[in-house]
Amino acid sequence: MASAHTAPLGLAAESRPPVAAAPPMPDVLPPVKPRRGLVGFVYRHPTMAIGGFLLLVMIFIAVFAPLLWTVDPTALAPARRTREPSLEHWFGTDMLGRDVYSRVMYGARVSLIVGFAVAILSSVIGLAIGLVSGFIRVADGIIMRIMDGLMSIPPILLAIALMALTRGSVQNVIIAITIAEIPRVSRLVRGVVLSLREQPYVEAAVAAGTRTPMIILRHILPNTLAPITVQATYICASAMIVEAILSFIGAGTPPIIPSWGNIMAEGRALWQVKPYIVFFPALFLSITVLAVNLLGDGLRDALDPRMAKRL
Amino acid sequence: MSRPILEVKDLKKHFPIHGGFFGGVTGHVYAVDGVSFDIARGETLSLVGESGCGKSTVGKAILRLFPITAGQVVLDGTRIDDMPAGRLRPLRRRIQVVFQDPFSSLNPRMRVRDILAEPIRNFGLAKGKDEMEERVAALMDKVRLPRDAVGRWPHEFSGGQRQRIGIARALAAEPDIIICDEAVSALDVSVKAQIVNLLQDLQKELGLAMLFISHDLAIVEHMTHRVAVMYLGKIVEVAPKRELFAAPKHPYTEALLSAVPVPEPGAQRQRIILKGDVPSPINPPKGCRFHTRCPYAFDRCRVEEPPLRPLEAGHLAACHLHDRPAAENPLAGARGGALLPA
To answer: Domain holding A61: CATH number?
Structure first.
């Protein structure tokens, strides 16, 4: 590169006064060392790394709850009720003498199961509904008006109403929250499908004789997965919160199964004198929701087509 | 001349405008409103006109990406515009398309091999995996891309290379006619020249007919055999390239030609500046559609729509001026604005 500057053009050499050659360019930019592996990933996607790490910790807790120095979370011990946090009871005990630490560890199971199940179910169902209404114009009007109707009810109210129709169980909580979340996914998918249908590569595929099912499978579906994945993480976070709210007001997980929501509900009456009963499940819920949201933000940045080169 | 490979007869495409509370039809966009032309085997017909005049709609209507409102599209003697989708599918092989935007015309989640294999597989042009590989490799050779690039993703290519992949995909179906919808407009000048030359070579080699939709008259002059000029959903003039560029018979063509830059510093053609904007295709003007902007418009133009009629052999124009005596017709005879040496 330097030689281009030091060798003047023949024209300049004969007719014009010699021009001082530009000094060779210093290496201002340090050589870029591509970072690979785990370090590189953390370096490039810090939000995704932090969120993913926290979420992995929570999954670890949920899976290995019995091994993490816990006792039976439902074992009553009226003699030792409302103990302050101590070496024996790390997070104290509640008003029935149950170990709050054990209950919080086991409670992670409910939150994560509900979060993941709702995210997966509502994404799959919403994807199907969105594809149908994006491709079949007659169905579109009807489906979208139904979705509008569902969306006009706040998801928490809708979930409460659905829970009122049935008895409390983790399974019913999942179904209720899924129904409340489906409209958001199907709207998103429909929008993406409508814009993808007009893409020249889809038109070229039509001109190339590809049948509609193959168009959907090969050209539409793969291109909806990135936005859906991102949306699924947000739904997961929101489902965990809704589950906690339902359990808190007694419309969700039955009290026999410890969940962060119903631990908080049980501690509510005592929160001014024994705040730790509410504090610890709330802290874990917040960390988990934060982790999922960070993961979603990271995924959104990483899957953005404008940043495709970074992948 | 034998039977034309493609005939378009009085093609109309009106897009409904939905509005109001119940989404009823409140009007129509008269995007294409009675367009007729034909293309012979191995011939290039250019469709030119400013943005929004309906050029691309004509292309998409021929490809039947949407149903047309009226008219006929006849491919090699077979009417295809009213054919059921199942019967049309095998015929789609014969009409292929190259789009303007090299970035959105390739599926970002398919490798080049799969993009090229799709039409081959759909039309059953290869038996077995080996023949498929062979065909894909041959297509890469045809568009002068390295064979080993078939395993790459579209985003790894430049705009010009992507356009070559788009052309290869069109060729994969072994078509008789290719619709180039502004196929080189998005490319920069040097790449544009390469793609234009590639298209011309392929046309000679494979005897392809081409409908070259463009707004770039300089490229059109280089590429084409005949030119059709569109204005507001109608064809106003059709002529072989030399006649059209040397002696336009429609005032709109004349104005378009005067806007082509002269590739010589300092030189300036006498520009005809059209006043006003293109009227809305929702509510096109009565009479001649061009009368609102025509420098020569007279009373008859405002009430009566001129038909597209032959003036010389192969030279059609839609203008009332040619009914007037030659002395009063500013378009009579050869005029300035010629781009070609005579």
So the answer is: 1.10.3720.10
